[in-house]
Amino acid sequence: MSLREGYPSVFLMSAEGDTPEQPAVNLTPKNPADAASAWLSRAPAWSKNGRQIYFMSFRPSTGGDVEIFVMNADGTGVTRLTYSVGEDGGPQTR
User: Which of 42, 66, 76, 91 could hold 8 in an S-S bridge, CB 3.0 to 4.6 Å?
Assistant: First the structure.
């Protein structure tokens, strides 16, 4: 999780860190169609098999609640997992 773009986002980078050859990639960017949208993503957790990342996120589509989402390790296939009122806690995998 990083604030490098001014809001909490989940980034993927090599074990060596953010380098010019392999820059960090924002896996949870804001919606480009709505630059003012308040997308906040935090508390990433890798799946046991390393193919997916679970994370907490506040988005306009969540109605003001922080929900848990999952996405593929490359940032594709984002799926909302919870639909509850209030903030859902940080995801953990086993």
Answer: 42
